Amino acid sequence: MPKLSDCFSGCRISAHRNVDFLVIVNPNSGPGDSPLPGHDYVREVPKLNMQANVCTVGYVRIDYCKKPLSEVYEEIETYAGWAKDYENSGLGVKGILLDETPNHHSTDRAEYLDAVRRHIKATEGIMGDRLVSTFRLCLIRDGRSPVLARLLLSIFVFLNLTIWG
Fold this sequence. Notes:
Radius of gyration: 16 Å
Distance between the termini: 13 Å
Oligomer: single chain
Largest sheet: 5 strands, parallel
Number of domains: 1
Mean pLDDT: 78
Structural class: alpha/beta
Number of helices: 4
Strand content: 15-25%
């Protein structure tokens, strides 16, 4: 299994300055219960934030719009809190990735997602443009077996040491 530090070796991020990377920061199926992530994240996320071609986003699972908004907001605010000492630490994220988003429209879901989007955009501590992203994996039938369709605009690197490419 590749290590996070491998991302900075000659064949990864630093060697592909013309490729933009969206890096999902996911310490514990979200930011975790502590105000700051574990020491590996405190050490490595600033290295990612120093790269001009990297956008770090915090992972938040919304359970298909069933997770209480108060819990979603709390996780967003935990990620935002990481940047309190950004000038010295370099720790923080530039947006939030929402996982387990619904694939069918309803007025309630649209209102839920819009409330989450507004909260992300208004939260001090989420840096830069405060990107809001979603990640959906879909199964497609090719006539024989399901095929995993990756709807990715960039390469996602999960900081829980699982690298998807």
